[in-house]
Amino acid sequence: MEPPPRPSASLFDVYLRLRPSNVVGAERFLDVEQSDQSNPTHITIKPPSTDHRKRAVERFAFTRVFEEDAAQLDIFKGTGVIPLIEGVLGVDGKEGRDGLLATLGVTGSGKSHTILGSKTQRGLTQMALDVLFQSTNKQLVQPTYGSSVFPSLAAADVSEAQLFPAAAFLDSLYGDNQSERGFNSRAQTPMPEYSSFLGTTTTRQRNIPRPSTFPQSPTLQDIDVVHVDSNAEYAIVVSMYEVYNDRIFDLLTGSATGSKNGAQKRRALLFKSTEQSPDRKVVAGLKKIVCGSLEEALMVLETGLVERRVAGTGSNAVSSRSHGFFCVEVKKRNKSRHGPWTASTLTIVDLAGSERARHAKTAGATLAEAGKINESLMYLGQCMQMQSDNQEGNKNIVPFRQCKLTELLFSNSFPSSSATTSHHHHYHHGSNHRNPQKAIMIVTADPVGDFNATSQILRYSALAREVTVPRIPSVTSTILSGTTANGGKSQLIEGRTSPSAAYEELEQATQEIARLSEEVEVLALRLAEETARRKAAEASWRAAEDHMLEVEQDVRDECFAEMETRIEAERRRWKGAWEEEADRNDEHMDRKIEVLVQGIQVHEDPEPSEAERAEELERENEALRRKVEMLEREAQMKSPIKKQRVLKSRKWEVDVGFESP
Ligand SMILES: Nc1ncnc2c1ncn2[C@@H]1O[C@H](COP(=O)(O)OP(=O)(O)OP(=O)(O)O)[C@@H](O)[C@H]1O
Questions:
Q1: Position in ligand 1 atom list of the atom nearest CA 352
Q2: CA geometry: angle at 441 spanning 440 and 446, to 5°?
Q3: Same domain, 88 and 41
Q4: Does 523 map to a domain?
């Protein structure tokens, strides 16, 4: 009945980390099996004594269980993060292979503590970055806008990303006087005050701590040397995004730091194949930051975390409701020959805490979020189970397309729909590096926390699971054990007529009852699980509906806004044209008036002298007088009536022409 850990060929190693409790005297529902003291792999959980309905004990297998006393460094060393990093770096002229490190756990179980650390303790992310920068130190390029390396890095990116040198990026968000020079020389330029871990973000200057105030421990002094490719030069490119309500959002837009893009609405990004990456899906259009030092990378990380807190979770700052992705792309090319950059990515995922919908006390969006989280974790669990079943010879299709989370985590681990299953045989050839490394999943749990939520997470994530029901204590078996101990089999045969036959029958019946009640227990458990799934599905359905409405509203708003801006632009254009026309008219009129005025002046200019004018008038007067005299004479010679008639008839003749006789 020993459930073996899944074969090592599976895509995930799953570690369980238990967090120390701060509740005194709380009942513990989770126990670690101490069969192998140094390397425990199994735990059992049993429902709290207050729960009278269930008595089933569930047993789970993990790659390894870390108990409460495990320190951050124990986890870092014990989960194989270092070999994962070496794989990403790609030793000896080989291309690196992608690596995934993820944490999963109920809210408050210590996910953030493990992956991101606390005020005083570094998390796995910071330690992994430290190892990366320490080991590539001498071979790391320092790209600035001016250097020739930067354009080549930007050109090598296949994901339609916008690349920025860290100094320029940080400068644009926080910098007043923090020039590139300031960052790279690590000069003590005045840095914003440390406050983000306290959650007080009053001004953008205070959003981010100084690198010197980031926790420094645990240090990595006693870490073995990490192998790097000595012939390579490296560049480290950081990007961050979150999956929230099944949509992908960039976390490095700077919207939380009050930069000029602050008011911009967050736009969801697509996970798709691009022109330069036709056979592989990537998150397209991210901002990517090329980091030249650990300090820069930590500042970028912190910037993304602030944005996740502010933009992502909105009012609910207590618990992370999105799946956070922190991607460290290691770009590499031959030091002397240069040649093309190749890239492999270490992705660190902080999966959202699962909560039962009924535990999310607020309604509306929160409930929908809880539904989405539960749903995506359920799909994640299905994928993990399926993929490890597949390793055992089954040929199930891993249903990773059901939500963004599993699509992001799995789609590049499995052959795409166009490739056939024979793809498996090609793993060792050609596109070998495309086959990601075995991923590390760290499940965190509080042994005295919420039983229901924790057991659900364990069911989703454990490598193997087994349900047992404690046997009903049997009176007859006790009696029988007494009789059989003496005579054994022979006594049983000879005693057919003796009371032992009745005992036997009774024992069988009791066993049957025990078996049946065990079955009932298991079925009840399954039913509970299915009910939870149904509820999660219903919640996600509602979430989808809400989302649809939201999208519709967004589209409407966008259309309206666009129409308004267009109308406004058109109005302005018209107004402009109208004014121009009016101006032109005015000018025209002015010119006309000018011309007129000039004309008048020309006529008036040769002002005639009064004597001349009098003379001229006199002459005119004389001529007119003569004309009058002549006309008078003429009039006296003709009768005025006759003359008028003649004139009229003549006119008629002229007008009507030949018609007149
Ligand atoms: N192994 C540990 N040792 C000491 N303190 C721990 C440990 N794990 C968790 N804690 C503390 O417990 C508290 C809750 O842990 P944490 O914030 O990491 O939970 P979480 O799982 O990330 O929750 P959420 O999903 O809400 O973010 C923190 O104050 C953290 O410092």
A1: 25
A2: 145
A3: yes
A4: yes
E strands, 219-354, are 232-244, 247-250, 268-269, 271-273, 281-283, 287-291, 323-334, 338-350
3-state secondary structure 133-151: HHHHHHHECCCCCCCCHHH
Count how many domains the chain has.
Answer: 3
Q: How far is residue 119 from each of residues 205, 514, 521, measured CA to CA in Å?
A: 19, 53, 45
Q: Residue 111 carries which side chain, given as an amino acid letter?
A: K
Q: Which residue's CA lies nearest to atom 1 of ligand 1? A: 19
Per residue, the 3-state secondary structure of 338-403, as one string, reads EEEEEEEEEEEEECCCECCCCCCCCCCHHHHHHHHHHHHHHHHHHHHHHHHHHHCCCCCCCCHHHC
Rounded CA separation 421/390 (Å): 11
What tens digit of pLDDT does each residue of 508-558 get?
888 888 888 878 877 888 888 788 888 888 888 888 888 899 899 999 999
Going by C-alpha positions, the residue among 115, 250, 282 that lies closest to residue 169 is 250
Q: Is 105 in the pocket of ligand 1 (CB under 6 A)?
A: yes
- Report the SS3 class of residue 445: strand
Cβ-contact 296, 178 below 8 angstroms: no
Residue 165: in which H helix or E strand, if any? strand 162-165
Q: Judge if 124 and 245 occupy the same domain.
A: yes
Q: Give the Å distance between the CA of 107 and the centre of ligand 1.
A: 8
User: Same structural domain for residues 439 and 492?
Assistant: no
With vertex at residue 645, the alpha carbon angle to CA 641 and CA 646, rounded to the nearest 5 degrees, is: 120
Whether the upstream peptide bond of residue 499 has omega within 30° of 0, thus cis, is: no
Distances (CA, A) of 604 to 595, 617, 621: 14, 18, 23
Same-domain check for residues 458 and 547 = no
CB 112 within 8 A of CB 350: yes
- Quick: pLDDT tens for 149-181: 888 888 888 888 899 999 889 888 887 544 444
Query: What is residue 204's DSSP assignment?
Result: G
Is residue 109 assigned to a domain?
A: yes
User: Which range of residues forms the domain containing residue 563?
Assistant: 475-576
Whole-model pTM?
A: 0.67
Establish if 200 belongs to a structural domain. Answer: yes
- Locate the DSSP E strands across 385-483: 439-445, 464-468
Residue of the nearest CA to atom 8 in ligand 1?
110
Annotated binding-site residue numbers for ATP:
105-112
- Asked whether the beta carbons of 413 and 386 are under 8 A apart, the reply is no
Residues 195 and 121 in one domain: yes
| Ligand 1 center–CA 32 separation, angstroms | 20
ipTM of the shown complex: 0.97
Q: Are residues 186 and 264 in the same domain?
A: yes
Asked if residue 282 and residue 143 are part of one domain, the reply reads yes
Q: Would residue 484 count as lying in a domain?
A: yes
Same domain assignment for residues 342 and 437: yes
